[in-house]
Each structure stands twice: as structure tokens, then as C-alpha cells.
Amino acid sequence: MTVLPTALDPRSPEYAANRAAMLAKLADLDAEHAKALGGGGEKYVARHRGRGKLLARERVELLLDPDTPFLELSPLAAWGSDYAVGASMVTGIGVVEGVECLITATDPTVRGGASNPWTLKKALRANEIAYANRLPCISLVESGGADLPSQKEIFIPGGALFRDITRLSAAGIPTIAVVFGNSTAGGAYIPGMSDHTVMIKDRSKVFLGGPPLVKMATGEESDDESLGGAEMHARTSGLADHFAVDEYDALRQARRIVARLNWRKAHADPPPAEPPKYDEEELAGIVPGDLKVPFDPREVIARVVDASDFDEFKPLYGPSLVTGWARLHGRPVGILANAQGVLFSAESQKAAQFIQLANQRDTPLVFLHNTTGYMVGKEYEQGGIIKHGAMMINAVSNSKVPHLSVLMGASYGAGHYGMCGRAYDPRFLFAWPSSKSAVMGPQQLAGVLSIVARASAAAKGRPYDDEADAGLRAMVEQQIESESLPMFLSGRLYDDGVIDPRDTRTVLGLCLSAIHTAPVEGARGGFGVFRM
Fold first, then answer.
1. Domain stops at, among 259, 292, 320
2. Does residue 115 lie within any of the structural domains?
3. Cα angle value 130/132/136 (rounded, 5°)
4. What confidence score (pLDDT) does residue 477 get?
5. pTM higher than 0.90, yes or no?
6. Taking the CB of residue 454, how many other CB atoms lie within 10 A of it?
7. Is residue 222 part of a domain?
8. Interatomic CA distance for residues 403 and 131, integer angstroms
């Protein structure tokens, strides 16, 4: 084995400072996660419980196999918006009857589980993950449909949700809906389009238009039960495939449906893996509070991969990018990790070759981000940094093996693209609380605007207001800094969640297991024209 050495000293002042900064960020993160866990607040949670109903996360927990993990996705969706943190929905990957499934659960304590624009984005992301990784989908539904005041933002894209359900089914990926309460208007199409539907006696209500709308549209008098109750749908319309007596029975029946799917992963589970040689707890003290201070990503790799065993590729060439082969929870991976932040021509060419090799070997790629982008300056432009950076982006764009991205530190500019940022469709993308991502750093962006404004004033022969310039720079820096933070970006679903660094190995392992439900096949050519 090629065991990575470590130079990390947990007793050093630098480690202590890094760890303290990380723990402070994690405390802030916990406070925001608590808002999602709190749903609509104590009043509405108490009202929901008073009706004898389980909460969304309790339904998920009872659905899952005992003592198995649940990888929650996008828990901070809608953070920083006018809507509740979590976007009135729980999504994630969990094991049901031994089968990894994509699970969604609407939260009826938040505006009756109504869908707002962020709910829609979160649900569409969940469907995307299910489709790419061939994960059976289980929807735990209790929703009044669209949040009507925001209909202008969700009506058109909302149709994609129904399209996704039918496309999943057409691809042979099972879809299961369990209706716990109202599933009205557009929400009625979720059980209507799913392969399997479970409804609950005296609880489930599924109709396109409720009694008031029917009265207004047709003049017909009706009631909830005759219009859309579970017994009516089980006996008369045939929409209900399974009729449950209560929530527990519904979840039991959903589990039995999964048990009868005869679902198999495309790849067998790997043998048990040896854990890293170094303590994962130490991951909390590696990234400096100031991202301008470099750190060695090998220290991260050594605490994430099996047995800390890593075979580095081209270690002496393009040293600002670490590339190499390892196993993670028994599964082979190729790793690309930024070392000193900047990507030069050598790093770009090295990355392109490494990505091609991973595709030849059908090996998933893990990208560990800490980059300020591609190098600028006359020397580097003349040396071909544009075409070499384009080579790396070309390789990432046309690679067919699954990609996993983790933002550890900076992830700026085109470097974010080259390292498989959100726009490049990684199967999963997570961020550490220490990360920042934007077009460029706040100081650089504010400085560029200042230089442009100063040059414009000079060209027009006008005096330049230095005091106003200082104020503008401070305002821009503050804005860009706030918009670069992981909670802001996670709230907009630019990642799949902000995670504790110490959980990185576990999170990546769960993702790799999910990925291997579908075939893993690399590109054989088809990379487009590499400019030499």
C-alpha cells in the first residue's frame, strides 16, 4: 500500500485556531438546520400532532430499515428567502427493505405542505438524482398543492415535476406514492402518475378540485370523501392500489411494495473496507479560517480514503493539483484536489489526462475544491492558459463516469467549472462550512469595479471621487462576501447540502453506494477537440 504520511500536528496553535473557526461555523450551521427540523413552528407542529398525525421526518424514519443511515439532501433549501428553511419538504436517500431509495416527504406543518418555488426546485433536484442513479422513488405526500400567492413562479416549471414522474417510470425506475392527507389540485397527479399508490382510510384526500371549486365550476354539491376519499379511490375510481387503516399501516404497505420490486443494484456491494489510518476528527482542524492561507489536500485525502492508501498520479508535474487513485468504502475512485489554489497550464493538462484515464477505467471521480481559478497574467496568457483551461473543462464536460464534488475552501471563477461545479452536473455536490464560491473573491471583484470606474472617469476627463470609491468597494465586498457563503448557496440549491468535514467519508460512501445502483461506464472518446 502507498499510505499517505501526515504532517498535521493536532497540538499546534494553527490546528487549534483552524478547529475553533470550523466549530464556530458548524454551530451556526446547526442553528440553521434546527429551523428546518422545526418545520412550521411549535404552534403548527402541535396542531398536526393533535390530529393524530406523524411529522414528515417521523414518517421517513418509520419507512427506513432500522439502524440504517438517511442522507438528507438540500436541508437548507430556501435559506435567505421569504420561505421557511427546508422549503416545506424533506428529501434524501435511505434504505427500505434493503433497497436504496430516493425519498421525499412534504411537511404539512409549513403552510399545509404547499409547494413554493424552492419546494419545486428541491423536488426536481431529487428527481434528477433518482433518474441518474436509478433509485426507486417513494413520495410521502400531504400537500395542499401550489402555494397560490407564488403561482406565477411555479406554474410553468411545475409541470416538469409530473413529467419527471412519468420519465422515471418509463425508464423502469419504480415510483411509489403514500398519501397521508390532502393531495389536491396539481398535487393529485403525484399519486395519479406513480406506479404504486397507497391511501389511508379517512385520511387521504385526492382530487383535482375540492368541494368549493367543484361548486363554483359546476354547481355540484359534494363532500371530501365522495369526491376524493381513500375508500372511494380504492373501491370506485381505482386510483388507490393499496388501502391502509392508518399511517403505520400505510408505511408497512409501502415497505412491502419495495420488498416485491425484485430490485437489484447494477454493481455488487464491495467487501468491507479498512478505515483511514488517521482520525477523521482531525478534519475539523485542517482548513484555515482565512482561505488565503494554503493547506495540503493530502491531509484531507488521508482521512477520507480506505487505509489512507493513495497512489498519486504525476506528483511532480502540475503540483498545484493533486491527482491519484484510491478506494473509498471499498469502491475505486479517482481524486482531483486543489493544493495551492491556482490552476496553471500544467495542472489543466494533467487534469484532462487523468479524467480520460478514469473514463477508460470506468472509475468515478471525486473533486475536492480549493481553487481561486485559472492563472492570469501576460506570461500565462502567452503560455496558453486559455486553451489549457479549456482542455480541462472539455474533459470534465464530456466525462461519463459519475462525479462527486466537495467544496472545502475557495471555489472561484472558471476553476469552479473545471473542478466540476454545479453547472457541470456532478451526481452529488456538497460543501464544507469553510467554503466560499463566486465569480471571484470579494476584494478582487470590488477592486476590478474600482479600476474600471477610475479608468472611465479618466477617459472622460472627470475627477474621481476616492471617498465614494471606498464606500462602493466596501459595499460590494460585503455583498459578494455574503453571497459567497455556503448557507446562501445551499439555500439556492447550488449544492446538495453543507456537511460537517468529519462526515465527509460517510457522505461520499453513501453517495458512491447510490451511484453504483446504476451502471458506471466511462466515455470512450467523444471528448471533442482538445486545442493543443
1. 259
2. yes
3. 30
4. 75
5. yes
6. 14
7. yes
8. 15
Residues 137-147: tens digit of each pLDDT? 999 999 877 77
Interatomic CA distance for residues 95 and 255, integer angstroms? 10
For the record, the C-alpha cell of 327 comes out as 478506494
Distance CA 202, CA 88 (A): 24
CA 248 from centroid of its chain's CA atoms: 30
Report how far residue 206's alpha carbon sits from residue 224's, in angstroms, rounded to the nearest whole number: 9
Nearest CA among 417, 415, 477 for reference residue 445: 477
Q: Which three cell numbers stand for residue 174?
A: 419504480
**DSSP designation for 311:** E
Grid coordinates given for 36:
428546518
| CA nearest to 351, candidates 312, 322, 375 | 322
Same domain assignment for residues 289 and 425: yes
Pairing of strands 137-143, 175-184: parallel
How many domains does the chain fold into?
Answer: 2
At 233-249, the pLDDT tens digits run 999 999 999 999 999 99
Cell 495540503, residue located: 296
Q: Which domain holds residue 118?
A: 25-259
Claim to verify: residue 234 and residue 353 sit in the same structural domain: no
Listed in sequence order, the DSSP H helices in 38-116 are: 42-50, 56-63
Residue 336, beta-bridge partner list: 323, 367
Q: Is residue 271 classed as helix, strand or coil in its secondary structure?
A: coil
| Secondary structure letter of residue 172 according to DSSP | T
What are the φ/ψ torsions at residue 427 (nearest 5 degrees)?
-60, -40
Residue 461: pLDDT over 80? yes
Q: Are 108 and 56 in contact (CB under 8 A)?
A: yes
489 and 402, same structural domain? yes
How far apart, in whole angstroms, are the C-alpha atoms of residue 137 and residue 174? 6
131, containing H or E segment? helix 117-133
pLDDT at position 133 over 90: yes
